[in-house]
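Memo to structure team: turn this sequence into structure tokens by end of day. - J.P.
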Amino acid sequence: MLTIYGSANSRGLRVIWMAAELGLKYEHKDWLPRAPETKAADYRALNPGGRVPTIDDDGFILSESMAINLYLAKKHKSPLYPSDPKLEALCWQWSLWETDLLDRQIVTYVRHSVALPAAERKPEVAEKAWLEVAPAFDVLDTALGKSAWLAGPAFSVGDLNVAGALYRALSIDTSKWANLHAWLQRCWDRPAAKHARALREK
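Reply from structure team:
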């Protein structure tokens, strides 16, 4: 039995999306980051850092959402995990690229530009984050101008990982990056993505 620890209102969103793509049944521990449950000894035994998401897949414990999704897609022999090693490597490449250049940056930008109450926003923080977000958007837009998807001719775990991490980009104007904008909509229009998003926005 698969257990997913982590709320849809966390990076667990990506894992919930993947589970829906794969049609997996799972037990869900709907815990927010830093929730009391994440500080308990039994959870710290699974993930010493206390972060979410973590999965328990019949006794196999794994954390980090990108790694979880790569594992699940490969284990279940999903078309989302390319059999061609070159396309497989592109899934890894884009997943790792996103965690370095966009993961925290897009969160910080959106928080301090639109998400937080106006009195709590810090424009200088948003501006600094945007100086990293915009060039990364340029890179994605260029790549998606050459191919409709990030790792081959079809939607893959690479697209899911990056688009899942860019959930917050849905709340800002990305129309300047036409290829990125269209790709993000294609990804989030998938039924499994809509399912995950509905859990986050309920």
